[in-house]
Structures are given as structure tokens and as C-alpha cells.
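Quick one:
INPUT:
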């Protein structure tokens, strides 16, 4: 069968061909190819240092590949800036959680609408003191109405996290627990109305019940049809969520397939055992300390 031109493949969001990223002598991502179709949940697993976060950076525009091609929805977006990718609907969270420490929870989430609005009306969500001044000076305008709508939407997104964030919407992000900062990041990403959500270890630093809550949320997003690319260390989570799994080791893709196929793949077991990262009791792949 002839190899299909990806640009003619309907429903493929990311189509990544042979991307490579080198840091001095180290090849962190080595000729990795993958694709993610609309509506899929694809997980990237692998031991610490395997190149997972670096790969995410290449897809989200926070870093550029030395080689290879990244296509999104049929377009070559290799080396595009994060903002350009966000405007196309690529939203991501960071492994260690990034929030604006001095902004409130609500304003942190409102910022997520920026790329979406920049695309439609070249506007900015009005946040914090600027919003207060604006509301005082420009009463009764269409923009004020949009501002209210955005706030309502942000609150609805925050309500997805139950009582974790709602009582804290006016609190500065620096006062939040680590787990709550991760939740704020996801809420901010959802405000973009993403076409694909890239989650880098969303349950890192979370205990068992927090992890179970996060699993429920991601399952729900998946059921709503959101396309998800997930980096995750907790294998039971990966097994529950993923349609397909891609395994990286030392920058290379060593396996890919259905969750069960991958779990039983001898190369995958060797990669984890070789790095001594498998928890004996839990079966979780334990991340080394950051
Ligand atoms: P993972 O997310 O799978 O744990 P990373 O993508 O963070 O792995 O890292 C892959 C390899 O690349 C590691 O050896 C890491 O030290 C290295 N690396 C990542 N980012 C940089 C950087 N900015 N400069 C130099 N080396 C880096
Ligand atoms: Mg990482």
C-alpha cells in the first residue's frame, strides 16, 4: 500500500516525523515519530531522562527540533512559537507546574483564554487591576459583557475540580498547594478550548486519592471528545486512560501499541527494570526525585 501523505490524512492532529533534539553531546530525543488522531488519548511513558518532556517541548513550541518535522492538522508547524501553536489549539501543562504566583487563581485561569481571543477578536482577557479599572471606566459595553462571560466560564472550569479550587478563586496562586497549582494549570489549558491537551505528569506529587480524582477528570475530558497526549509515570493510570502507548528510552522510541501489548513487551519491562524504577508493591513506575 502506498504511504499516505499526512496532509491528506483526515483527523490526524499531530503527525511527527523523525524529530531529534540534541543538547551538547546528548541526544535527548532521537528520530522519534508519532501521530495522534482526533479524539485519541495517547500516552508517552519511559524512565526518567527518556526524553518525554523534551518531546513535549518540541510539540508545544517551547523548544525546536534539530531535525524532523512536526505537522499539526496537516500544516508544517516545525519550530513554531508556543503562542502560534496555542492559537491553533495546542494547550499544555508543565511537569513542574507553572502558574503566575502573584495572580489570583481566577486570573491565572482567565489567561488561558488569551490565545483563543487573540485569534478571534485580537483582545485580551481583562485580569486583576486592569479589569477593575476597565469596568469602572467603560460601563455597559459589549466587552464588559464578554468579560463577565469569560469569568463565568472560568468559574465553570474551576468547578470541575470540585471544592479544590472554588473556595480559593481569589487567592494568589503562590498560596496554593502543589497539587492545586497543577489543577490551575489544567483549568487554564481548558480555557483555550484546546483541540489537543498535552499533560506532562499531571499527577506528579499527588497522593492516591488526588491521583484518583485526576484520573476521573481526565477520563471525563476524554469522554467529552478531547484529544489528549499524556506523559505519565503511574502505569495503572496509563492503562486506564490510553488508547495507545508510546515508550521512550534514552531518547528513542522502543515500543508503541495498545496498552496491554506495551505493558507485556520485554523491551519495555527491561527499560524500566534496567533503570530500577518499578515499585515492587504498587507496580507503579516511580519517578526519581526531580
Ligand atoms: P523525561 O521527561 O523523560 O524525564 P527529559 O526530556 O526531561 O526526560 O530529559 C531527557 C534528557 O535530556 C535528560 O538527560 C536531560 O538531562 C536532558 N535535557 C533536557 N533538557 C535539557 C536542556 N535544556 N539542556 C541540557 N540537557 C537537557
Ligand atoms: Mg519529564
Amino acid at each position: 500500500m502506498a504511504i499516505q501523505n499526512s496532509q491528506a490524512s483526515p483527523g490526524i492532529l499531530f503527525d511527527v516525523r523523525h524529530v531529534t533534539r540534541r543538547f551538547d553531546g546528548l541526544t535527548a530525543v532521537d528520530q522519534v515519530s508519532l501521530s495522534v488522531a482526533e479524539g485519541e488519548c495517547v500516552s508517552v511513558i519511559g524512565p526518567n531522562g527518556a526524553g518525554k518532556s523534551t518531546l513535549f517541548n518540541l510539540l508545544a513550541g517551547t523548544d525546536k527540533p534539530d531535525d524532523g518535522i512536526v505537522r499539526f492538522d496537516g500544516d508544517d508547524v516545525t519550530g513554531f512559537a508556543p503562542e502560534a501553536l496555542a492559537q491553533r489549539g495546542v494547550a499544555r501543562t508543565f511537569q513542574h507546574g507553572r502558574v503566575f504566583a502573584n495572580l489570583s487563581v481566577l486570573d491565572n485561569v482567565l489567561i488561558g483564554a488569551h490565545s483563543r481571543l487573540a485569534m478571534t477578536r485580537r483582545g485580551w482577557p481583562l485580569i486583576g487591576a486592569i479589569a477593575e479599572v476597565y469596568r469602572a471606566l467603560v460601563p455597559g459595553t459589549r466587552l464588559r459583557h464578554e468579560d463577565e462571560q469569560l469569568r463565568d466560564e472560568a468559574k465553570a472550569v474551576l468547578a470541575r475540580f470540585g471544592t479544590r479550587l472554588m473556595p480559593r478563586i481569589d487567592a494568589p496562586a503562590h498560596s496554593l498547594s502543589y497539587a492545586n497549582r497543577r489543577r490551575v494549570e489544567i483549568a487554564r489549558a481548558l480555557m483555550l478550548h484546546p483541540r489537543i491537551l498535552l499533560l506532562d505528569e499531571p499527577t506528579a506529587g499527588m497522593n492516591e486519592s488526588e491521583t484518583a480524582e485526576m484520573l476521573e477528570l481526565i477520563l471525563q475530558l476524554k469522554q467529552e471528545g478531547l484529544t489528549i497526549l499524556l506523559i505519565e509515570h503511574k502505569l495503572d493510570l496509563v492503562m486506564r486512560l490510553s488508547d495507545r502507548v508510546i515508550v521512550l528510552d534514552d531518547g528513542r522510541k522502543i515500543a508503541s501499541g495498545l496498552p496491554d501489548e506495551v505493558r507485556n513487551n520485554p523491551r519495555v519491562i527491561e527499560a524500566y527494570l534496567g533503570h530500577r524504577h518499578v515499585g515492587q508493591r504498587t507496580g507503579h513506575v516511580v519517578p526519581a526525585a526531580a
